[in-house]
Amino acid sequence: MLGGVAMLALAALAAPLASAQDAQNAAAQPATGAAGLDIPADVIVFGRNDPTLRKPTAIVNGDIITRTDIEQRLALIVAANGAANVPPEELERLRAQVLRNLIDEMLQIQEAAGNEIKVAQSEIQQSYERVASNFKRNPRQMTEYLASIGSSEASIKRQIEGELAWSRLLRRRVEPFVNVGQEEVQSIMARLEAAKGAQEVRVGEIFLSATPETAQDVALNARRIIEQIRQGGSFAAYARQFSEASTAAVGGDLGWLRPEQLPDALADAAREMQIGTLAGPIQIPGGFSILYMTDKRQVLTADPRDAVLSLRQLAIRFPAGLSESQAAARTAEFAAATRAIQGCGAAQEVAQKLQAEVVDNDQIKVRDLPLQLQDLMINLQIGQATPPFGSRTDGVRVLVLCGRDEAESAQAPSFDRIMAQLEEQRVNLRARRYLRDLRRDAIIDYR
Question: Does the keyword Signal apply (predicted)?
Fold first, then answer.
């Protein structure tokens, strides 16, 4: 995520996708009507297309996308997902997707330049520094890291330039023509108040556009993405590279919303999903979506996971060469001693006896803890400790609850926030149409 580079927006949906039955009917007769195409039922193809031939580079309206550009951007995806050994067929699929992304990026930069929109190098550098800080590196260290994985500083900066240029172009060419009435906002606020206590979810989305002709291939691509994420890939990284919604810039995050605010198929899936799970590919108008459930809460009610905890952590580490039986014995001793803790003062004494490390933190929200610990902490009494957790490599630790500030009832989103969200939805829809028109008018020479 590039902080401040792109606005958070809900993914808007493109034109409706024909059903499978519609597609079958269309195949049986000449295509007429809205599509405006005149395709005979008895098609004879002159010549042969070799599906194994993939053209790795492109010239977009005279600007060149090189193989190096593609490989450096591909290296970012592979590294972001910790995939050291990606199968060759998966690499080829990712490479083709990266080329499509770079073409869109080039079209966006070209269109911005055509509208006399330029992004200063100083702004790009500031965003690059924020990216580096997200990786807990300074810019020099980030540049060295990128080179070590086969990418480059220039590749990230090009992506930053594309996002900034496109965002400014939309502000100039699209946003002034998007209007939201006060009545619409007030209606939503009234519905939120009426829905107090209902479920609200925070989900991430990867949206892949499709036509009836490409639906099968796009669905297959979505399933492959899901497989990679389930094998440990980063949802945010895949959303950033593959999603065609504007929320790609923020890792696909749609923010907090009620399931009813989503298209019906996505709403049905969101109601059934558990935190930390994936759903998809889900067919919706315009393409397919992959959902990731980040969190859940109740509308305008206090959520115990918003409670702020004061915690004391006790941790022991195992020296190199310790046998399994010795580690097990040390863990059992640690568990027995911490189970008897009564209060944080006693925790300090136990830590001294066990030669355990002690770390305090007074500002931890329950929801910021790993899922496995959240229910434990909600039900823990002040002064009690969790069961030991950890590993032989990282050590074993417990958390002692020293205090809890209970969560307050959530506030309804403000009038301005709801209006901004509605505007973003409509800007996103127009932006997708804008990019679609740029693709249609572009002269692209694949090499």
Answer: yes
Structural domain harbouring 323 = 305-405
Does the pLDDT value for residue 302 go beyond 80?
no
Assigned token pair, 19: 């059903």
**Is residue 213 included in any domain, yes or no?**
yes
Contact assessment for residue 141 and residue 149, using Cβ atoms and an 8 Å cutoff: no
Beta strand 287-298 pairing with 308-316? unpaired
Give a yes or no: residue 412 inside a domain.
Answer: no
Query: Is 259 within a domain?
Result: yes
User: In the numeric block, which tokens belong to residue 213?
Assistant: 């002709």
CA 386 to CA 399: how far, in whole Å? 5
DSSP string, 389-402: EEETTTEEEEEEEE
Q: Would the CA dihedral through 211, 243, 423, 272 be positive or negative?
A: positive
- Classify 243 as helix, strand or coil: coil
Domain limit, last residue, from 278, 302, 326? 302
Same domain membership, residue 312 and residue 296:
no
Selection from 65, 151, 152, 61 nearest residue 113 by Cα:
61
CATH of the domain at 246: 3.10.50.40
Number of separate domains in the chain = 2
Stretch (H or E) spanning 58: strand 58-60
- How far lies 173's CA from each of 55, 229, 434, in Å? 34, 36, 10
Task: Give tens-digit pLDDT for 236-245.
Answer: 888 888 888 8
Q: Please state the rounded mean pLDDT for residues 39-56.
A: 51
Does 205 lie in the same domain as 238?
Answer: yes
User: How far apart, in whole angstroms, are the C-alpha atoms of residue 358 and residue 355?
Assistant: 9
- Is there a single domain that holds both residue 198 and residue 293? yes
Whether residue 374 sits in one domain with residue 280: no
Report the distance separating Cα 21 and Cα 39, nearest Å: 18
In a domain, 255, yes or no: yes
Note whether 296 and 195 are same-domain residues. yes
What are the pLDDT digits (tens) for 121-173?
999 999 999 988 888 889 999 999 999 988 999 998 999 999 899 989 998 98
Residue 340, CB-side half-sphere exposure with 13 Å CA sphere: 8
- Specify whether 310 is located in the same domain as 298: no
Q: Cα(429)–Cα(264) distance, rounded to whole angstroms?
A: 18
pLDDT, residue 410, reads 59
pLDDT at residue 21 greater than cutoff 80: no
Report the distance separating Cα 91 and Cα 97, nearest Å.
Answer: 10
Please tell me the pTM assigned to this model: 0.50
Structure-model confidence comparison of residues 327 and 293, the more confident one: 293
